[in-house]
Amino acid sequence: MSYQTIVVHVDQAPNLEARIALASALALREEAHLVGAAMTGMPRTMLAGRSYEGSGVFMADYLQRAKQRVQQDLARFDTLAERHGVSSREVRSSNDEEYSGLCLQARYADLVVLGQVRPSDSGEGNLLPDLPDYVVLNCGRPVLLVPSEGRFPVIGKRVLVAWNGSVEAAKAVTAALPLLRSAERVTLAILGGSVEVLGEEPGADIALYLARHGVRVEVLRRPEAVDPGAAIIAIGQEMECDLLVMGAYGHSRFREMMLGGATRTILATSPLPVLMAH
Fold first, then answer.
1. pLDDT of 38-60, one tens digit each?
2. Do 89 and 20 contact (CB within 8 A), yes or no?
3. What residue ranges define each of the domains in the chain, with the CATH number in brackets?
């Protein structure tokens, strides 16, 4: 298994350049095709609002600005990807709203690269506050979240896997195999956990599974934490990891995102790139 197609979300958020740099590095490493994707459709928050006199003119004006903005953003992606040496690349713009449009593009890829949202990221062209949450739960593909601060020229040398025996965690581990195989160090972190879920020797079975894929791991057990998300981040920083791998826990109810506490904490605050699968 390897990543053959990688989609990176393109917008005007401050961390876009770091996001494209990381996506480009992965594309070169995996010899993958890189797609820069941007949407020009009306945001669902506007579509849900009541119409009023002049709203049609406002919407037309917004869509025109969105098309111009996306053209500039995708041109920037193309320039940066070329600068990083990515020859197999393309740009895609679709007249969809950001949520469904990005999920649609993600389904034709092996990995989707997103940016982490900061509270200050507001205004046209920036990341929508709950976009990463929605895409993680609904795109059907693993998501690599790039932190809002810092640059990450290399990831996957020192990897922390948050393991709790769940379906989501198992999917995340499988999705991360292309990175885990070449890692210098892989640590499996287990916070508490029961014998019923993790077995008589927690971590042993998943370590054996990974060993068959050529991945050697160290199992690290810690007591159950009140705030598991913060505890996982702390372990990652303590061990100087450059990538966190974990399952995204949550479900959709009445079309609203319902994320688990640890997932939400890590999506919002992780200083490390995070590979998630749902």
1. 998 766 555 555 554 445 556 67
2. no
3. 5-146 (3.40.50.620), 158-277 (3.40.50.620)
